[in-house]
Specification:
268 residues, alpha/beta, Rossmann fold, 8-stranded mixed sheet
Amino acid sequence: MTEYVHGYSERETQRLFDQAASVRELLHHDTRYDAGARVLEAGCGVGAQTVTLAKNSPDAHFVSIDIAEDSLAEAAELVARERLANVEFRRADVYDLPFDEASFDHVFVCYLLEHVPDPDGALTALARVLKPGGTMTVIEGDHGSCRWHPETDAARRAWQCLIDVQAALGGDSLIGRRLYPLLAGAGLTDVRVSPRMVYGDHSRPAVVDAFWARTIIPMVHGVHDRAIEMGLIDAETWTRGVRELHLPIDRTDGTFTYTFFNAVGVKG
């Protein structure tokens, strides 16, 4: 895995939970698993998606993996607080999974591929442990889809720093648009991709707060040091750009859109 572009701070943990809450229904309304199904969640992080999966499919059994021990510990604490008994956690590398071939009825992946250096290899490894006829669900964002009003040059440059820093670390924040060829390339069939757009304006204050104020802007803040060190932007433009990213919040005519992609494929 590449270096995690957003870091592992308490602020980042909270951002993950805010993001998960703001798009929970949008991304998960059609993700359900049958009773008795064994589901691998790859890259569970701090459990922000795990809790929703486990609650939505209480009679399925989830094996949630991540490479970061601290994140797994936080996820386990969260699941315990929520009194969920259908999740187990294991530390594992997605490229070297400690499971037999065809071990799982389904695989679920969310916000993982954008951070790994070889998404094709990750999906091939995950497909190996999936049973024939089982499904793989992959959800990823696409930072290139993010637009807002009023949009300024400085704000756009600050946002572009997030994309460029992640690319420099070996990730791809534009990967949502690539899910169809990636899943098909891993040998999955009947691949279906569903774009899921978040839209916010001042008639939707909860969305503006949870998604723009507490998800989008903190992501940009998180790459400040690297962006300056890499010479992607000067300090003055950065400060102005981040300030102007608040315009969709501060102005009554402010709006924004962002598109996630939900892809499902079947193992033949």
